[in-house]
Amino acid sequence: MSKWITRGIFTVLFLAILGTAGSLMISASSTDDSGPKLTHTVSRGGMKVTVTEQGVLESSENTEIKCKVRGQNTVIWVIENGTQVQQGDVLVRLDTLEIEDAINERTKYAHWSQSGAEYSKAEVARATLAINEYLEGRYVSELLTLEKDLAVAESNLRTAKNMLAHSKRMSERGYVSELDVEQKEFSLTQAELNLNATKTRIDVLKTYTKQMELETLNGNLKSIKATHAANVERAVLDANRRDQALEEFEHCVVKAEKKGLVIYPSAAAWKNSPDIAEGATVHKDQVLMLMPNLSKMQVKIGIHESVVDRIEPGMHAAVSLPELAMDATVYSIASVAQPTGWWTGNIVKYDCIIQLPSIEGLKPGMSAEVEVVMADYQDVLTIPVSAVLETETETLCWVMVNGKPQRREITLGDSNDVFIIVQDGLREGEEVVLNPLSFVDQAQQAALRTIDETKP
């Protein structure tokens, strides 16, 4: 059994012992065991062990109305907490100055980007046509010119050969000089060189110039296409940014999605005011308002760590409101404690949800007192807690026998801070002394002995 009973009694009654210490020192036997004493008759019956906590009503099903505007935004107007609204009613207005500037800036960039995308689109078409223009135009024209030059060179070569042969025949007959023959030979050589040069130019055109020009044109086309893709992507992004700013401008006026009650979300325990108020700053996805389902109400209470292990879902709870009382059920108990700090007095508690029946008139924010029944004993032997004295080694009470208190060692069970179950050591109908430290010498001596033994 925990020593809390002893320590609680010691704390309260030790002062009383000290107050009467003078008289006890004068005569330790002066206490009259047969004097008047407060007693209690040991009886059987029922006993409930409960824990009582304060809480506030809330809904287990809330429609969250969130901020859809990025960044930090200032609230310039908010509807009053607890207002009944219709679908489409304005709930919150946010400052739009920065968003309007963003819309103007992003619209300008969207137009610039679109202009660049249109220009690069025309460049892609021009580069695509340039390839066909070369293959079907310039290349064919250059090839025909060279083939014409080749035909002329071949003709000149034949003419040079004929002229040389004629000069040689005439030279043999003495009609022309050797110099004239040499001139015709030089003309033949020149014609052969011109023919070979023309053939070489045709081969270079077909083998190299054409490939080089196509590579250049295709590379230029790819480069322009990449530039165009980048311009298109930039135009899309800038347009999306503009459209997003326009959409966020619309979200600066927050409206109700349905009719019902709207309330402010609960602020943190250490804050003095709600997060949603005129002049407050909110951010994207922050919950601005709640629309609770009033048919699904609950109470959240904090259960002290000393008894949290005894609380289980399904336990009965009695809920008291200012003008209403109802039976309820424990729905859940948190596995992690609430944050602690100076605002909680560093007391460790666990959130416990009490599910309420569907009753008209329940509203979020109502204060409630919740009594959770941790155990309900029937036909058990009980005595008042004030009749018990616990020491370091034993648990005692004093029973009136023939008008005098008799020391009795007992075994205890569960307690509800007023009564405690006696498992062994007492019988039904016996009279136990209440507050034995005030009336029984043996109790006072046992208490003093326990205090001495606990001193360092």
UniProtKB/TrEMBL annotation:
InterPro entries: MdtA-like_C, UPF0194_transport. This is Macrolide export protein MacA. GO terms for cellular component: cell envelope. It is found in: Cell envelope. Residues 379-434 form the Multidrug resistance protein MdtA-like C-terminal permuted SH3 domain. It holds the Pfam family RND-MFP_C. It comes from the Bacteria. The keyword Cell membrane does not apply. PANTHER family: BLL5650 PROTEIN, EFFLUX SYSTEM COMPONENT YKNX-RELATED. Keywords: Coiled coil.
